[in-house]
Amino acid sequence: MLKLFTGTANPKLSQEVSRLLKIHLSESEVVRFDNSEVKVTIKDKVKDSTCVVIQPTSNPTDTNLMELFFFTDALKRSGAKEIIALIPYFGYARQNREHLPGEAVSANVVIRFLETIGINAVYTVNLHDEGTEGIFSITFKNLSAFDILGREVAHYLKNNKNMEEVAIVSPDQGGVERAQNFAEKFFHTNKVDIAVIEKRRNLKVAHKSEALNLYGKVKNKTCILVDDIITSGGTLVHAAEFCLKRGAKRVFACVVHHDFSPGASESLARSKIEKIFISNSIALTPSQNFPQLKEVSIAPLIASVINDLM
């Protein structure tokens, strides 16, 4: 028997998944004390059941991670046969290597915690670096939201998928493979050229980067910037400006996760990006919303994966 649980990070997404699967969310209780400690209690019978916990580990990352750990321990103590952590947004994924001497490789630490606490499998959506998959010693699945997002973009563009009129753009060199994969799915061919923004990141100042050059054809085209995460928004804004300076007619963005830092919404709202398509992997607060933002639900993607477990 499968039991579906939600953490407190994004209950709306979990409720959508529950409705699509036509199964109730199992009962649990999360209590936060005044000293910032958290207590998780499982209030449903889970003995010998496969239990799925939906919990993005987005801001506040540490708080949401600890809640997930406590869910796992409580489920194990209650006799769950298997525990699957469905983490729509995987916090710390960008800290997957030692960029400067003396830095912790935080992604590795989080993965070891997940394995040690007793989770049997981890499913996530568009992990920042696919190479991180090799660190896991438990079952790991990296799902892609780009099919769902791409369909929404195509619908908005009235299904214009003419490569002579539309250009797929990677806003930095590290995202070239990601943009290529999106382009192949969007145009339904692997014979796709993408444009790339050359970017220099300041490793000593968080979320600071500078666009240096653009390689590829964007003149007189509608540009779709493809990325996995928005934080400050600076990378997208600079990339859009570069495309327009090089003669692009319009600029859109298609990004999976909106891990907004303070001021990101305002910066993006002032930009010349016509529409930004994002998923609901992270709960969007009212203060983070703005007219150009179009949120697309990934509940069908998650429900489909869970349905295969039933």
From TrEMBL:
Pfam families in the cross-refs: Pribosyltran, Pribosyltran_N
MF terms in GO: ATP binding; kinase activity; magnesium ion binding; ribose phosphate diphosphokinase activity
Ranges of residues in domain Ribose-phosphate pyrophosphokinase N-terminal: 2-118
InterPro entries associated with the record: Pribosyltran_N, PRTase-like, PRTase_dom, Rib-P_diPkinase
Catalysis: reaction(s): D-ribose 5-phosphate + ATP = 5-phospho-alpha-D-ribose 1-diphosphate + AMP + H(+)
Assigned keywords, A-Z: ATP-binding, Kinase, Magnesium, Metal-binding, Nucleotide biosynthesis, Nucleotide-binding, Transferase
Enzyme Commission code: 2.7.6.1
Presence of keyword Nucleotide-binding: yes
GO terms under cellular component: cytoplasm; ribose phosphate diphosphokinase complex
Highest taxon above the source species: Bacteria
Domain Phosphoribosyltransferase as annotated: residue spans: 151-257
GO biological process: 5-phosphoribose 1-diphosphate biosynthetic process; purine nucleotide biosynthetic process
Family indicated by similarity: Belongs to the ribose-phosphate pyrophosphokinase family.
NCBIfam families, per the entry: ribP_PPkin
Family matches, as PANTHER family: RIBOSE-PHOSPHATE DIPHOSPHOKINASE FAMILY MEMBER (PTHR10210), RIBOSE-PHOSPHATE PYROPHOSPHOKINASE 2 (PTHR10210:SF32)
Name by which UniProt lists this protein: ribose-phosphate diphosphokinase
Species whose genome carries this gene: Candidatus Roizmanbacteria bacterium RIFCSPLOWO2_01_FULL_35_13
Phylogenetic classification of the source organism: Bacteria, Candidatus Roizmaniibacteriota
